[in-house]
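Hypothesis: this fold can be encoded by more than one sequence.
Test: take the structure tokens below, design a sequence, compare later.
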């Protein structure tokens, strides 16, 4: 699996000022008062891994992740999130395996959509989604437990519960590839 070292946010939701989070080994918990941005942090992590469903970001449109402004601060024109991944063991898939760390960056600009980079190279959303799907840590990963998700899992229909388990088993990347092969 891929080890996350850092999460950097800039203009993402309530994180208007550049914020650099160091992620240590083991389980990470986020605590703080209501509205301080705990859920936004988790959404930033999903977003940089290629999340493309606005509903998963609690917004109406993809641009809603950009800092919208407050009574004292103007809105921003872009949001950027970077995820720094440890690759000292050089276990990353080919195409991502050229350095000791992989820095995945996603940036959204108003009216211009999202762009992704892996270190300095431009990559497609799909490349990023596949990287994390194979490592079973992707945007829809069961390793990230959203607020209210435990109750959802308990109440889920068998089909969607199966999807969650497949994601945990790391085989969802295979399904995606089969689906694309069938379309060809
Ligand atoms: P709780 O403990 O209630 O779950 P939380 O710590 O999870 O709270 P979040 O939901 O992450 O808090 O953060 C909510 C805050 O983020 C709100 O103040 C909201 O106004 C702010 N916010 C969300 N999107 C944006 C945006 N695009 N621009 C500016 N602020 C935003
Ligand atoms: Mg929350």
């Amino acid at each position: 699996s891929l080890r996350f070292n850092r999460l950097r946010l800039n203009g993402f939701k309530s994180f208007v000022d550049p914020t650099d989070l160091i992620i240590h080994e083991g389980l990470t918990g986020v605590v703080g008062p209501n509205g301080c941005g705990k859920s936004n942090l988790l959404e930033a992590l999903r977003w940089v891994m290629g999340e493309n469903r606005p509903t998963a970001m609690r917004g109406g449109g993809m641009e809603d992740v950009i800092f919208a402004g407050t009574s004292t601060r103007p809105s921003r024109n872009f949001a950027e999130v970077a995820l720094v991944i440890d690759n000292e063991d050089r276990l990353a898939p080919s195409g991502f395996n050229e350095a000791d760390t992989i820095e995945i960056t996603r940036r959204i600009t108003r009216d211009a959509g999202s762009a992704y980079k892996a270190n300095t190279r431009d990559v497609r959303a799909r490349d990023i989604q596949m990287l994390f799907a194979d490592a079973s840590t992707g945007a829809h990963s069961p390793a990230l437990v959203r607020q209210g998700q435990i109750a959802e899992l308990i109440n889920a229909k068998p089909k969607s519960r199966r999807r969650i388990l497949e994601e945990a088993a790391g085989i969802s990347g295979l399904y995606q590839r089969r689906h694309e092969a069938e379309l060809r």
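The mean pLDDT is 87. DSSP finds five helices and six strands in the chain.
Hypothesis status: open.
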